[in-house]
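Table S5 (text form). Sequence records supplied for joint modeling of the two-component complex.
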Amino acid sequence: GENVEQHPSTLSVQEGDSAVIKCTYSDSASNYFPWYKQELGKRPQLIIDIRSNVGEKKDQRIAVTLNKTAKHFSLHITETQPEDSAVYFCAASISNFGNEKLTFGTGTRLTIIP
Amino acid sequence: GAVVSQHPSWVICKSGTSVKIECRSLDFQATTMFWYRQFPKQSLMLMATSNEGSKATYEQGVEKDKFLINHASLTLSTLTVTSAHPEDSSFYICSATLGQGRGYTFGSGTRLTVV
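The corresponding structure-token record, covering 229 residues in total, follows.
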């Protein structure tokens, strides 16, 4: 099955600086890669996603890049703000009709230092 | 749109009792639902995939007789933790696929504490 590794497990960044979180996946058939932000005791919230036919996607301060050959994808947050502090999870799935099982990375606890 | 309502949000039960967690899709039909378990400071681990009208598919290491999943309709899936023990204390979250590659929506989670 799919295995998703995520690094770093913790990340502290000065407010205003950029944060980068990296993930690798094992199943070359995976074609959908979402990123989630989770606050304590809450459900994961989708912040951005990318599909395998695209190399990069950006939404304001958040961007995701995908390297299919190397099987890795990264989350980039620019101009970080205190409210960006949370746990971030990457995930991967094989999106098709029927079973679209989503496998999560191990998570990154991001702390923005004011 | 695409809201999954999960209840209860938290529950405390005695060891040896059973607890049922419900997930309802409010404005769409969820053919497939996923059940995850999340221990403190850990990731979401998939427990099982629930398909409407058929038996759930459990991940390796998950006891199907302990975690009973029922998906009898396109809008309701339930997870019953039977004979709960303290080690079953965790955060349980359901998720539904929106189909055709449109991503996922998550329930609000259930914090289960077994005493």
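Note: Chain A is about 0% helix and 55% strand.
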